[in-house]
């Protein structure tokens, strides 16, 4: 990881110091640091001549910009009505049981974070799960468990 101040400077140099570039700069920080620290948001605000509140407001609005630490693998389960009707809740229960966490939590070893997400754009193939940048459609509880076990075999707890 690059020191936060240097990282923000590199991102501003790359994208420009306009308010229009706030989002790609915040995305760059998250890509490097895993989440947006208070220090990072203050540095971005200074670099773009914005208020810290405006930067935080933007960061907290978008579900893909984290303002607290998340696991190495972020599991997003679609929370739309179509996924709910397709069995989303059974998938969530299976993941929670396997990882021993609840929705919105991160495993102790920081390997997985489980969150709900608004529409992932795959309503015709629900229920849908996104792990990092990979989309998994027509998920069953068993498929979800297999995907997680493939990512981190040590999560082979009794299920």
Structure, explained:
The chain has 159 residues and is α+β, with helices and mostly antiparallel strands. The protein folds into two domains: 4-61, no CATH class; 73-151, 3-Layer(aba) Sandwich (Glutaredoxin). It is 46% helix and 11% strand. The protein is built from seven helices and four strands; from the N terminus they run ααααβααβββα. It has a four-stranded mixed β-sheet with strand order 2-1-3-4, covered by helices on one side. A hairpin with a 2-residue loop joins β3 (129-131) and β4. α1 runs antiparallel to α2 (22-33), α2 (22-33) runs antiparallel to α3 and α6 (88-99) runs parallel beside α7 (141-151).
Please supply descriptive tags for the structure shown above:
single chain; 159 residues; alpha+beta; Glutaredoxin; 4-stranded mixed β-sheet; 7 helices; 4 strands; 46% helix
Summed up:
This protein is α+β, with helices and mostly antiparallel strands.
Total helices: the number is 7
Shape: elongated
Kindly report the name of the CATH homologous superfamily of the largest domain: Glutaredoxin
Q: What separation lies between the terminal Cα atoms?
A: 36 Å
**Helical proportion, percent range:** 40-55%
Q: Could you tell me the mean pLDDT?
A: 90
Note poorly predicted spans: none
CATH architecture of the largest domain: 3-Layer(aba) Sandwich
CATH topology of the largest domain: Glutaredoxin
Q: Which structural class do you get from the secondary structure elements?
A: alpha+beta
Task: Write the H/E string, N to C.
Answer: HHHHEHHEEEH
> Biggest sheet: strands side by side, in what order?
2-1-3-4
How many domains would you count in the coordinates? 2
The CATH class assignment of the largest domain is: Alpha Beta
Summarize the main sheet: 4 strands, mixed
Radius of gyration: 18 Å
Strand content: 5-15%
Would you report the number of β strands? 4
């Amino acid at each position: 990881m690059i020191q936060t101040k240097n990282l923000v400077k590199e991102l501003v140099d790359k994208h420009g110091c306009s308010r229009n570039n706030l989002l790609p700069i915040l995305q760059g920080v998250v890509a490097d640091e895993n989440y947006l620290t208070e220090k990072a948001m203050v540095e971005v605000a200074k670099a773009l001549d914005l208020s810290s509140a405006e930067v935080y407001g933007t960061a907290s609005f978008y579900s893909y910009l984290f303002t607290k630490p998340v696991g190495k693998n972020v599991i997003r389960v679609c929370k739309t009505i179509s996924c709910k009707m397709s069995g989303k809740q059974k998938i969530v229960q299976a993941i929670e049981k396997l990882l021993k966490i609840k929705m919105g939590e991160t495993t102790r070893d920081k390997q997985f974070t489980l969150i709900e997400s608004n529409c992932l754009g795959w309503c015709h193939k629900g229920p849908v799960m996104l792990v990092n940048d990979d989309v998994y459609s027509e998920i069953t509880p068993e498929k979800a468990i297999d995907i997680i076990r493939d990512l981190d075999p040590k999560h082979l707890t009794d299920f």
